[in-house]
């Protein structure tokens, strides 16, 4: 294919795609975790047009990861308890996440107080009509450190955080 | 605490005699103290308030329940020392003098006492095995005995869509292994005077501590449903002597007493609740020369609620109803009970507000009702009943100050102090309000003010 043909093909493709789907819309999400085993929100909202999410977990506490390490793990709601348990068995070396577990949609590594970590993931794996939950997989934390990730029905680029 | 309570109870139930001395705490104090152990804190690296509400035990947070459920085994600090010391004492004043001093070396009122000193061996043994073992010196009885014991093994399992934690507990007090503070062993008010009078009657399940040994198996399903079953056996007099007790403490259990527990819990980000049921079915042979036994069927219903938002305010509430059906064939045969059929109901509720995990105010209420039984509850000064009724009703008011146990506490986690003022008021005591004992004593004269300190190092 010549260069001219290639450019024409790209232009055609771009014109054919509905607006908003042509380019990846990366939506930023931020969540905080503290030394009291709490996230700062029980619910994260995602705009319907987000094709990719960049989630930032900020540990606002002071305690080290070995004592009060937190992570952020996204699964289907029904998978929280079994994945948390599998994480217990996986141990600290694997961030309390079973390696290669298909139930984990996205996850950050463990961070200690004052640290921040980010994970990017595609929303292609998220199906409408399914409910998703996030939790911290450090042993015992998921009892209080868990929440829902909801996809807004209305399109809106900004992912919103719902305060407690 | 539980030991004292059980001794009191068995003196009564085994011989069918009312206790000569209604030594001990107010009714609800069956709950033994302890916990918020620095040994657990060093093992996990966490301050006490992660596992205990207000930074001091025994009331557990949702995470504290998880820690216990998983066998006291989380955390792997190489510096962990699995030993802790606890001291409890205070000043006790009853509204009117007791007819006799409540214990040797004490006055009939206004006593300062060092109620108990305990040594704990508590912590992780291996990655799935942990122990909580307590030895106590009673300053009022002046002797050393074993106290609460809970050795447990637990492991997480994933089965399809279910996350399970399965475990076994070897323990010496029904409900000492329980995760909620609505059940007897760790129930409100957590501390009581050893020198104050307490009602004569109590369900059997609250009084077996340290006189039995049992094993239970449990499973927690998806952090929601908890199921547990097992059994308890009595201990021989020889065994009891080896742990500092004596034949008076023998529960005289006949065979194995089945125990069971089920609870459904809800843990949100800030709201935590549970509803459950527990029970024990025990046959006692109080008189070895009589073929018949006394059977006790205890059925409990309980609920808890905790509110722990990120700020300074916390609420906790517990309620439990225990109903006991008794079939006292043996005691009836020996004349220790008027009737064969007999029953007892006990309701116990408490509400605690805590501020900044440092100050707390609590209110509790209790109501004991049962069949009248002139032989079982006979008239006697202070501890008896004029009309043979076990009915007792009252309330507990309490304020506390807990300066340590937080992340930024001085010498964390090694210094833990709780000081408090507790008032126990009786509207009814052993069946009556005025002259309840047949010797002219009124229920209100047993109202008790207890100023206490509680130290864990
Ligand atoms: Cu966490």
Written account of the structure:
The complex is a heterodimer of chains A (164) and B (457). Chain A is built from three helices and nine strands; from the N terminus they run αβββαβαβββββ. The longest helix of chain A has 14 residues, at 3-16. Chain A is globular. In chain A, the strands form two sheets. Chain A has a six-stranded mixed sheet, with helices on one face. Chain A has a three-stranded mixed sheet with strand order 1-3-6, with no helix packed on it. Chain A is of the alpha+beta class and 164 residues long. The N and C termini of chain A lie far apart (56 Å). With 457 residues, chain B is mainly beta. A 16-stranded antiparallel β-barrel of chain B has the order 1-2-3-4-5-6-7-8-9-10-11-12-13-14-15-16. The radius of gyration of chain B is 21 Å and the shape is globular. The interface between A and B is medium-sized, with 35 and 32 residues. The site of copper (II) ion (CU) has 6 residues of chain A, from loops.
Termini distance of chain B?
19 Å
Q: Label the overall shape of chain B.
A: globular
What fold name stands as the CATH topology of chain B? Porin
Q: Please give the CATH class of chain A.
A: Mainly Beta
User: Architecture of chain A in CATH?
Assistant: Sandwich
Largest interface: A-B, 35 and 32 residues
H and E order of chain A: HEEEHEHEEEEE
Main beta-sheet strand count, sense and barrel state of chain B: 16 strands, antiparallel, barrel
Q: Helical residue percent of chain A?
A: 10-25%
Low-confidence stretches of chain B: 1-35
Helix content of chain B: under 10%
The multimeric state of the shown protein is heterodimer
Q: What small molecules does the structure contain?
A: copper (II) ion
What top-tier CATH class of chain B fits best?
Mainly Beta
In spatial order, strands of the major sheet of chain B run 1-2-3-4-5-6-7-8-9-10-11-12-13-14-15-16
Major beta-sheet overview of chain A: 6 strands, mixed
What fraction of residues of chain B sit in β-strands? 35-45%
Count of beta strands of chain B: 16
Output the radius of gyration of chain B. Answer: 21 Å
Percent range for β-strand residues of chain A: 25-35%
Count all strands of chain A and give the number. 9
